[in-house]
Amino acid sequence: MAQFAFAMPNPLAKMNPHVLAGTTIFTITVIVLAAIALFGRVDSAMPVAKIEIPSLADMAKTQASLRADDGHQPQKPLPVIHRQSEPSLPGITVPKATPHDTTTTTEHHATPTLPVSADALPQAPIAGLSEPGPGGRLPMISEAGQRPASAYARPFAAKPGKPVVSLVVGGLGMMKNTTMAAIEELPAEVTLSFVPYTPDLQSWVDRARAAGHEVMIELPMEPFGYPDTDPGPYTLLSTASSAENTRRLEWLLSRTTGYFGVTNYMGSKLTASENALAPVFRGLNRRGVDFLYDGETRRSSLTNVAKAEGLSWTIADRIVDIKQTTAAIDDQLLRLEALAIQNGSAIGKGFSWPVTIKQLRDWTGSLEAKGYQLAPVSAVILMREEKAGASTTTAAKTETASKKEHH
Predict the structure, then answer these.
(1) DSSP 8-state assignment for residue 236
(2) Residue 209 forms beta bridges with which residues?
(3) How far apart are CA 136 and CA 251, in angstroms?
(4) Where is this region: Disordered (predicted)?
(5) What SS3 state is found at 131?
(6) Is residue 121 part of a domain?
(7) What pTM does this model have?
């Protein structure tokens, strides 16, 4: 081997080692640059499928900013969160429409086989309480006068002398794990609120009702800062005509059936305009559904328009998880207890954060021992309506008596 090397000398052996090293590095660099020019950087190549799920910390910061929704804080649009997976529930199938099939999904909705609890509510839709709409079945008041608000509400019997607390957990449907946790781990008296854009929304509503939970859907309403802060498609706008907002409302309401009421998602700008709010409240009342406002901005326009349109509604007293920590949520729940003692009832609203669901599960387990009643939010809306009606009647009688005395 040594003789062969002597007979065929390697010309590189005579080169200066520094020159050889430089030449090698230069050659490799040229090859790499050429590859990048042709194919792009390896670490920047677009994958076939990309899932962007923000960290819990980033999600918490964004949600807290959106929850503020008072027009005075800088707000950023909610980042796109790709759902974990398509909800696949045992026994529930959603028919796939064909090019010649113009019938909506909810019209074909078959009675699913669900794990039925002792608290289960009647399967939706209930006959006579819906009609065809742009996205499915629209709620309607029956010919006999029955309203979806009462038909789909969870029954509740108040115990005299006990303060009542109510909880609504929102943002459900887009994330499978948290939605299942809310349905399965929280007491049936907790009201669940779903995002209207949820895939297979009817399946989720059916599962929630089978577990005993009454259901609401969330209406995207225009906030200050729109469209930079965008609640989503079919947002109800302060600048839209009455006909346009009615069209949007009917699309949102026809996404599913089986809910007793709706609640706002954002909406600081819309709720500041009585003219814009009127057709929305009129449409809700005409279709027999209740309304819950999250209470972040308390505006007289809500009271004025609701009274004028005859809408059953109320305001949540606390958002319990503006700060998503155990201590902060527990503090808000203690304040909710105090409000219930002071006013007879209190409503707390929270988002479907894992920490929120855990704290609500633990807290609700202690309520009975503390002397409180846990009630669905529909019951508190009714209680407050009856109380307001009684107050109005008493005031009217007092005014009449006063006039008689003066005469």
Answers:
(1) B
(2) none
(3) 8
(4) 63-110
(5) strand
(6) no
(7) 0.73
Pairing assessment for the beta strands 137-139 and 130-132 based on DSSP bridges = antiparallel
pLDDT tens-place string over residues 271-305: 999 999 999 999 999 999 999 999 767 678 999 99
* Those residues with Cβ within 8 angstroms of residue 361's Cβ, 6 or more apart along the chain or in another chain: 185, 186
Tokens, residue 41: 């950087």
The Cα–Cα gap between 229 and 71 comes to 11
- Say which range, 104-113, 199-208, 336-345, has the weakest mean pLDDT: 104-113
Residue keyed to tokens 């809910």: 259
Q: What gap in Å lies between CA 379 and CA 153, rounded to an integer? A: 8
In a domain, residue 399? The reply is no
**382: alpha, beta or left, given left = phi > 0 and alpha = psi -120 to 50?**
alpha
Contact 204, 177 (CB under 8 A): no
For 44-90, the pLDDT digits (tens) are 444 443 434 445 455 445 444 444 455 444 433 333 333 333 333 34
Which pair of tokens denotes residue 106?
A: 């909810």
Provide the token pair at 1. 């081997």
Rounded-to-integer distance, Cα 102 and Cα 37, Å: 50
How many CB atoms lie under 10 A from the CB of residue 20?
A: 12
Taking residue 355's Cβ as centre, other Cβ atoms within 10 Å add up to 17
Structurally, how many domains does the chain consist of? 2
Full residue range of the structural domain in which residue 35 is found: 2-40
